[in-house]
Amino acid sequence: MRISELSRRSGVSVTTIKYYLREGLLPPGRQTAATQAEYDDQHLRRLRLVRALTGVRGLSVSTTREVLDALTEHTGDTHLVLGLALGAVRLSDETAAHPPETAEVDALVKELGWAVNEAAPARATLAETLASLRSLGVPVDARTLLPYARLAERTAVLDLDQLTGLADPLEAAERALLLTVLLEPALMALRRMAQENESARRHAAE
């Protein structure tokens, strides 16, 4: 397809596509003339993933390039590709700060029997959240999160079920990214609505 068709099918402007080409986010097309090139469905999938990484995850161009390079290097490892796209796997060897609650989170992950990378950013996020709650006087520990973790397991099954039948790792990464990031506000909204409903059930007659 010509660049105009690629733009139409992807929803990305020609100007932006040319910028992505210059920045190395999108591989060059097959040259058909001095100023013309043809693109295929692989370009379309890659372009959609670029848009998801920059627009949905909010990554910079340089970080997006790093993620794409890592995805290309590990295309045969779907588990790793999904982790890279979602930010569940760190690209660098940088180590995050470890609050005391990190040990609790490690114990929780072990009790759950989850296969979660030791450097996963979500571990640090969970530990920092526990620390913040305690600093505000909320008596909470990692075991308090256990029933929530079980609910998260069920949600993860639903998430990954949405990727069934997608053979192309880049397409799967894009779909996972969109479902995860864009569905999170909807999941939060459902939680708020469920809380209102439960509150009405418990207290409306008081």
TrEMBL record:
It comes from the Bacteria. PANTHER family: HTH-TYPE TRANSCRIPTIONAL REGULATOR ADHR, REDOX-CYCLING DRUG-SENSING TRANSCRIPTIONAL ACTIVATOR SOXR. The lineage of its organism: Bacteria, Bacillati, Actinomycetota, Actinomycetes, Kitasatosporales. Residues 1-70 form the HTH merR-type domain. Pfam families: MerR_1. The keyword Magnesium does not apply. It comes from Streptomyces galbus. SMART domains: HTH_MERR. This is MerR family transcriptional regulator. InterPro entries: DNA-bd_dom_put_sf, MerR-type_HTH_dom, MerR_fam. Keywords: DNA-binding.
